[in-house]
Write a structure and sequence with these properties.
Elements (H helix, E strand, L loop, with lengths): L2 H41 L12 H21 L12
Length: 88
């Protein structure tokens, strides 16, 4: 396999990973939006609208959780380090 074929394979793999991430992100967004609106309708106004009040603290908690999730996903791409502590 020559260098050009290897580079093309790497680019194809990157594109596949990016597309998979985009699809999974979109699906997660749709499911999250559905669950939010359903909960807001069940607990919200009598007319069944999806108006819910979200506090700044709640938004901050969700943002921090998302940042933690993104960090964990980024760690998946790093090679595993050998544990030198002697523990399994």
């Amino acid at each position: 396999m020559n260098r050009t074929e290897t580079e093309e394979r790497v680019q194809d793999d990157k594109a596949r990973v990016m597309l998979t991430g985009a699809v999974l992100g979109a699906l997660l967004g749709v499911v999250s939006s559905y669950l939010y609106t359903r909960a807001a309708e069940e607990n919200g106004s009598p007319d069944g609208s999806a108006r819910g009040s979200v506090s700044t603290g709640q938004l901050l908690a969700v943002l921090l959780a998302l940042l933690g999730l993104v960090r964990q996903i980024a760690e998946l791409g790093k090679p595993k380090k050998e544990d030198k502590s002697g523990k399994d």
